[in-house]
Amino acid sequence: GCGLIWLPPVLPFTGDAVRQALSLAEPIFGQHGFDFFATLSTVTERALSAVMTIAYDKSSQAETDAARACYRDLLQAMVRGGYPPYRLNPAAMAANMLAEDPYWQTVDDLKRVLDPHRIVAPGRYSRFEGPGTQLSPTD
Hints:
By secondary structure, this protein is an alpha+beta fold. Helix content is about 40%, strand content about 20%. The chain has 4 helices and 6 strands; from the N terminus they run ββαββαααββ. Strands 1, 2, 3 and 4 form a 4-stranded antiparallel sheet that branches. The chain has a two-stranded antiparallel sheet with strand order 5-6. A hairpin with a 4-residue loop joins β3 (about 35-40) and β4. The longest helix has 20 residues, at about 60-80. It is globular.
């Protein structure tokens, strides 16, 4: 019954960046009632990923809601702090794919051409869901 939500922000491979990112994250876990878990992993000689884990009781709707709120607040803090995630969960991905963003417009165009039948990761990594169709961030 354990639920896990991960947020893996990427940060420079420096002590200052690690201290800053962790000091941004730890209070957010506490505000939502969760223990702070983070694993630092080397990505390259210049970058680390600080995989932050929100562990919660999936059988509790209150904890599930708190975990989602914690993830949302953590994601916002990391992005504002200059530490974007290298991967998003599907719900966060959809909420961050803005139709007016040139990046997502390009991804949509590529998806239409390279995967017109939505075989590769259907419903993910693009707002494109079919010929001429775009989803809203809440779909």
